[in-house]
Amino acid sequence: MPLEDGDPARPRGLQVNGEVSGIPRLRGTGDPSLRGTTAPGGSRTEVMAEGWEPAPALGDGDVTPGGAPQRAGQHEEALMTELSELVQKVVKSSSWWERHGVDISILACSFLLLPAGFLCLRSAQAIPFLAGVLTLGVVHHTLTVKGSHLASHNALTESKSWSKVWAIFFIELCSAFTLEQATYNHVKIHHGYTNVIGLGDSSTWKLPFLNRYVYMFIAPLAVPILTPLVALDLLRNVEWKAALRTLCCMFLGFYCHYWLLLHVSGFQSPWSALLCMLLTRSLLAHPYIHVNIFQHIGLPMFAADRKPKRIHLMSLGVLNLPRNALLDWSFGHSLISCHVEHHLFPSLSDNMCLKIKPVVSQYLKQKKLPYNEDTYSSRLRLFLQRYEELMVHAPPITELVGIQ
């Protein structure tokens, strides 16, 4: 493989701070022509800083002479411990309002906006009606995306009992999904095996039989319909008591929405009420799908037996998008501009992820570790241009090798 300036220990092509358009291919994995490319749209890209050694990124199954795997593992564990201590200092110095209050207030404000949204739909004039659709759409995604995500990580409260209550409310009642499968697939698999092929590689978001334009711009409209259907199929994998609870919560959530549209918003027919439900529930479905694929797919992927340890796995395989007022409110910082921080410290709330962001970004850059960032528009262009490679074909496995 080509090496930089003849240095046998430093492979080219692995980049940080914006190298998100090309998947690093080392030791002949993948297309050499893609090494060192920059993302379309001028995303920030810098070559990996001098002196970074790939040895610490060895997985547990890697074998190199002289006990390198043990030394690499100890080094990575020390890095993660040091970063955790820095973050813990920030958390301990933060008030309850910063740890939980800000995000709870956002969710509470969303609930308070519901009456206004339903009442606006009573109007026969276009502007108030559209304001009602917009309000209910934003509220729906705030409760189902931000609320469900925080609840799945027990980030809303430090009480285990209340965490379970809020998880059932947001995931099953509001989102029409089953709690057990949501937490298993997201917390245990996606977070435990981020970008590991066959486990947490985000392959559940791929629909290779769809072309790029249908997938990116039309298919998201079906999310409100597909979500409960997928949930019903997954109920076969849970205990009957949990399945019954999920069915009751799903029915209650749908019926309350439907009843309010008929009796508060004044819809005259069931079909018009159902159409309005579909419209509001799919209002932000496009960025929801996009965010889920932008922040992992196209970044390094690993085999389960040759993956880096935690700090490298998360810094290599996760990407931050810029702050956006609408998406920050509806989806939360941990899914938008602080996704790297969230994957490193998943139990922290959105507001705390935002607060520790300077600490995490500075630490990773000081240690010459990747800290991936890119813009929404740049990622959209990238996926439209390389849809077949990223979303249809199996992703190549990245190998991080030690000193040869």
TrEMBL record:
Residues that span the membrane, as ranges: 213-235, 242-264
Cell cycle among keywords: no
GO CC, any one term: membrane
Ranges where the record places region Disordered: 1-73
Organism domain of life: Eukaryota
Domain Fatty acid desaturase: 129-373
Coiled coil: none
GO molecular function, one term: oxidoreductase activity, acting on paired donors, with oxidation of a pair of donors resulting in the reduction of molecular oxygen to two molecules of water
One BP annotation, GO: fatty acid biosynthetic process
Transmembrane as UniProt keyword: yes
Pfam families xref list: FA_desaturase
InterPro entries in the cross-refs: FA_desaturase_dom, Fatty_acid_desaturase
Swiss-Prot/TrEMBL keywords: Fatty acid biosynthesis, Fatty acid metabolism, Lipid biosynthesis, Lipid metabolism, Membrane, Transmembrane, Transmembrane helix
Protein name: FADS6 desaturase
Organism: Rhipidura dahli
